[in-house]
Amino acid sequence: MRWVYKYPHRAYPYDELVRVNGQRNRLQPEYELLDTGIFNDNRYFDITAGVST
């Protein structure tokens, strides 16, 4: 088993996610991490974790 975590170079946009989702109603889609632009220009590290057999 293996997992890949995309670790952005920028600070995690928690406040932005909370603020924008708080402004949306139930009919609008959830504002996702990808919507913030945090992964633009491939500015992230790939962190791989897994279980060795």
Whole-number total of structural domains: 1
Structural class: alpha+beta
Q: How widely separated are the two ends?
A: 9 Å
Low-confidence stretches: none
- The percentage helix is 10-25%
**Overall morphology:** elongated
Quaternary arrangement of the chains shown? Answer: single chain
Sketch the major β-sheet. 2 strands, antiparallel
Blueprint of the fold:
Layout: E1 2-8, H1 14-23, E2 44-50
Antiparallel strand pairs: 1-2
Describe the structure.
The chain has one domain. Helix content is 19%, strand content 26%. It is of the alpha+beta class. It has a two-stranded antiparallel ribbon with strand order 1-2.
Keywords for this structure?
alpha+beta; elongated; single chain; 26% strand
State the gist of this model.
With about 55 residues, the chain is of the alpha+beta class. It has one helix at about 15-25, and strands at about 1-10, 45-50. It has one domain (about 1-50).
